[in-house]
Design a protein that fits this description.
Helix content: over 70%
Shape: elongated
Strand content: under 5%
Low-confidence stretches: none
Order of helices and strands: HH
Number of helices: 2
Mean pLDDT: 83
């Protein structure tokens, strides 16, 4: 059960990370004419990691 919940949190964080990366990439492209993949990949992976870590701590209380 805990493993399934952990996978669900991981999938949710990947989706939210990709969405955040896309939004920031569109904004950076509109403002500074930066290529979208250059911005969206690092922002998406970092925000996905932060979302996963926050959801993990909220769900499991930080216990390993």
């Amino acid at each position: 059960m805990m493993r399934a919940l952990n996978w669900l949190l991981a999938l949710a964080s990947v989706g939210l990370g990709l969405a955040a990366g896309a939004v920031v990439a569109d904004l950076a492209h509109a403002l500074w004419d930066l290529p979208r993949p250059v911005v969206s990949l690092p922002v998406g992976s970092l925000s996905g990691w932060f979302v996963y870590s926050a959801l993990y701590r909220l769900t499991f209380g930080g216990a390993e």
